[in-house]
Known about the structure:
Elements lengths: L2 E6 L5 H7 L5 E4 L12 E2 L3 E5 L5 E8 L19 H9 L3 H11 L19 E7 L12 E9 L4 E8 L2 E9 L6 E7 L5 E8 L5 E5 L2 E7 L10 E11 L2 E5 L2 E7 L1 E10 L6 H13 L3 H16 L3 E3 L10 H10 L6 H17 L25 E2 L3 H5 L1 H5 L7 H8 L2 H12 L9 E2 L11 H4 L3 H17 L2 H21 L1 E2 L6 E2 L3 E2 L5 E2 L5 E2 L1 E2 L3 H20 L4 H11 L22 E2 L25 H14 L5 H13 L3 H11 L15 E2 L5 E2 L6 H14 E2 L5 E3 L10 E9 L3 E8 L2 E8 L5 E6 L2 E6 L3
Parallel strand pairs: 1-36, 31-35
Antiparallel strand pairs: 2-7, 3-4, 4-5, 5-6, 6-11, 7-8, 8-9, 9-10, 10-17, 11-16, 12-13, 13-14, 14-17, 15-16, 18-32, 19-20, 21-22, 23-26, 24-25, 24-27, 28-29, 30-31, 32-33, 33-34, 35-36
Helix pairs in contact: 2-3, 7-20, 10-13, 11-14, 13-14, 13-15, 14-15, 15-16, 18-19, 18-20, 19-20
Amino acid sequence: MKMIRLLLVVICALPVLVHAQTKPLKLHYSLPARMWEETLPLGNGRLGMTPDGGTHKEKIVLNDITLWSGSPQDANNYEAYKSLPEIRKLIMEGRNEEAQDLVNKNFVCLGPGSGGARWGKYQTLGALEIEYTHKLIPGSPGEELYNYNRQLSLNEAIAKTNYTVNGTDFKREYFSSFDDDVNVIRLTASKAGAINCKIKLSRPERFAVKTEGGELQMYGQLDNGIDGKGMQYLTRVRTKLTGGKLTTEDGALKIEGATEVLIYVSAATDFRGVAFREKSKSLLDAAMRKPYSLQKANHIAKYGRFFNRVKINLGEGASSGLPTDTRLEKFYGSSADDPAMAALFFQFGRYLTISSTRVGLLPPNLQGLWAKEINTPWNGDYHLDVNVQMNHWPVEVANLSELNLPLADLVKGLVKPGEKTAKAYYNAEGWIAHVITNIWGFTEPGESASWGVANAGSGWLCDNLWQHYAFTNDLAYLKSIYPVLKGSALFYKSALVKDTRTGWLVTSPSVSPENSFFLPNGKTANVSMGPTIDNQIVRELFTNVIAASKLLNTDLALRKELEEKLKLVPPPGIISKSGRIQEWLEDYKETDPQHRHISHLWGLYPASLITPSRTPELAEAARKTLEVRGDDGPSWTIAYKLLFWARLKDGDRAFKLLKEILKPTSRTDINYGAGGGVYPNMLSAGPPFQIDGNFGATAGIAEMILQSHDGFIDLLPALPLAWKANGNVTGLKARGNYTVDMSWKNGKITVFKIKSPVSKKVKVKVNGKMMLVQSVK
Length: 777
């Protein structure tokens, strides 16, 4: 490809572009939430809350990212490896259904697995309930409500509820403080003494409420699956009044005749041995010593250090000022008058990331931080066959790199238990995690062969860890994760077996996540050897470990061994007779051509094994694969397809998928097929609520604007017609620790700037031409 040399691209108009993107970003509504999926999510990475904005009774669901039932367990079957030779023999002979029966008998976890109390669940902390009494004006016919509005400011991470009753303006502000690590709610009234309310705490189970002095407390202990004495938690509520009187009654705080009320909610659990009683008290004491104005300003500033790194402008339209629920309906019907919706959804995804995790704690789970229930869908845990990985796909490109570190910590915690599992089931070196895990370090196969023996989980997690290095070039970080990557590579190196038909080295047994196929005898099975996703992950993992060993100047012998093994790993994709990427080593007919998982395109995204420029035949086969799979599915599936189409440089098809994920829905049933979308509060619907759809779509929008996986920075690689008129973005990240700003008009870049800590040359594709650009510090 011809390359145009360009030493520096710095345009003085860029500061104007930044100024043009400072319009406030918000979700807003003209009615209180009628269901939890209409509430507004707030969080500071540990604590969260979702107020419904009710005028008479308000329910604010509370969360703590560390609150889990269950406990550590060893569910390994230490005799499983004895069945491995027979299982592999049956698969090699094409007797997959018999192999699957043997897997179910001898090669799954002991006990009920994820269906048992020992496994545990991410659970709601409970709810803060506020009952409001509005005094009537003498002689009036009854209560009259006007000017209702509630909103969530993405720029400030503050929610508000405002309304007028009988001539009095009532205002509320809510935030999960990034400063004091407590939830804060401020109630004000335009007339002195107009606030009258009662404050309660509750939970569906395992709680006790009491008042102590002027403090409301809720304590409980969750089920650990052994003796009922699991994780403990404590929630404390205190208030500050301007005017009025505070009394306590029947486990509640009662406030009469106040003009302003500040409500502070502190909570803690004994996760990792934290002194939760002392912590919840000290946080509350510190927060109450600060003036509200300082507390709010500090919160906005500390949150803004993350959020303000990226600004995006895709244009404005006629619908931009409408209430968000109405706006969503109109966008799905006709997106032409609302180009700003995609920018709002992108920034909402960044907001959710910032709000649902923090360095030193846990990564966002299936629900991020926000769970309304005890029995959270799919346990609110960590699924390793796409979901937790998708949660982290936007983190690097969206300039929130350090928020990848909690996932790295979680994965490091899987190594030791994963070594036991590798020995127990495969008599192999290294470590493995299969398809599901929790905060207790579960690495065993799941309880059913149909999905539970997926081999890809640990290798896939290692790709997420590698991406943090690829974006940051942080050698100290690479050194810290190298043992994790190496341990995973050691597992696959020692567990791969030779396919006698092709000579390739493949995993066995394994599954292509949750999918099944027809055998020649008409029967169906899930279990096979060498599903395509495994081959792609092993190829990428070995390549990354080889690169890391060179960068760190270590493990020369292992490096050479992996280089030799890599020659025998199947290619990134095999094209079937139908012209599609095969999902399995054999060209099986899938039982569900529109299956929600598209695991065999892992090499297209998140990996870079398949690209239109380097592997055009495989890229075309991937395109045909997606055509057959269709555009519908649960929200996370739609988001994944959006990413695939962006990688194939088809911006309009990617935008079609973006519209599909923004399809309004109120369904909350458990769904495995078509029907994904978003709820009125823009949280993604599987249904039910799963946050991975939000994060996948956020990554997808970024991928349409900027790509950096193919050896160069590609500006506007998949820009749809809907965004071509004009737009600008600042602060996106590219691999190699580059920060990218750009502006475009009529689909063509007019201004761009590449920044890096050290000025260096980098290849950039601009308006179809490759340039060698000198980055600036």
